[in-house]
Specification:
alpha/beta
């Protein structure tokens, strides 16, 4: 159960598939004035030169939930596979990033190659699995009374950063600075295009 002084204070979550723009959105929210929950264990690299914004304890959300009160009033990144495990006794505002699956798969493949993993990836099978998962995740989100969700397109964020920043700021309603958010969008990092 929530144990902070304001149990109704929502946890802001940036979610989506890996390589869908979640780190970009985390950077935007930080620039806009939001406190981020991250441990800096996974540092910036060629695949995410502005950082990953991860919090390792998220990966054990089914067995370790003691950190959730600390997340209230802040933003934390939780990939969509783990988001479905979020306990229902908290309120969440979810910014869910969506990106064209061919771009996600190409980005993942490039990341694997950079790490020396040359094993072939079955893009057709992966696309099917991701599509099925996204459908399940969106259906699950729509059915949760404790979750408000805003879907944000990766490409639209790159093309119209200020418009998206304003939309996200309005959704979160916590006085973020859309201009500062938009200034963090770096189109040069859109390296895998569908």
């Amino acid at each position: 159960m929530p144990t902070s002084e304001s149990p109704d204070t929502p946890i802001t979550v940036v979610s989506g598939l890996p390589r869908s723009g979640t780190s970009m959105m985390m950077k935007m929210l930080e620039a806009g004035g939001m406190d981020v929950l991250t441990d800096q264990i996974r540092t910036a690299d060629d695949d995410n030169p502005k950082g990953y914004y991860e919090f390792e304890r998220v990966k054990k959300i089914t067995t370790d939930q003691a950190w959730l009160p600390e997340a209230q009033g802040k933003v934390v990144k939780i990939i969509s596979f783990l988001l479905l495990k979020a306990p229902s006794d908290y309120r969440y505002k979810v910014v869910f990033m969506k990106r064209a699956l061919p771009e996600i798969l190409a980005s993942q493949q490039q990341m694997l190659l950079r790490r020396g993993d040359n094993s072939p990836q079955d893009d057709v099978r992966m696309a099917e699995l991701y599509e099925k998962h996204l459908n399940q995740a969106c259906a699950w989100l729509e059915g949760q009374s404790n979750i408000d969700v805003l879907y944000v397109e990766h490409r639209r964020t790159l093309e119209f950063p200020l418009d998206v920043a304003k939309q996200v700021a309005d959704f979160l309603g916590c006085g973020l600075d859309p201009v500062a958010m938009a200034s963090e969008v770096d189109k040069s990092l859109h390296r895998q295009r569908a």
